[in-house]
Design a protein that fits this description.
about 0% strand, single chain, about 80 residues, mainly alpha, 4 helices, about 65% helix
């Protein structure tokens, strides 16, 4: 029985572009909890897998991914600056 290759969701592709060991889902979960949501981390993983399309959760994950990318770029720039000094 051939099940075929499952296509990765857009959010999975976003997560694949991040370095290993990132904390995007955890960061998104913490931000949602601080905002008063009672969402579980599992629900966020369901969104990443494409099984749920809750816009509030998608936005939280994308916000956390953007913040992670910005932090990484800032740290790389600082490291390069120190390496050249």
């Amino acid at each position: 029985m051939y099940t075929g290759d499952k296509e990765r969701s857009l959010l999975q592709k976003v997560m694949d572009a991040l370095p290993s060991g990132h904390t995007v889902v955890r960061d998104a979960h913490e931000a949602l909890l601080k905002a008063g949501s009672t969402i579980t981390r599992r629900a966020l993983y369901e969104v990443v897998k494409g099984r749920s399309k809750n816009p509030k959760l998608v936005a939280a994950i994308l916000d956390a991914a953007e913040a992670h990318k910005a932090r990484s770029a800032e740290l790389n720039a600082r490291a390069e600056k120190l390496a050249q000094a």
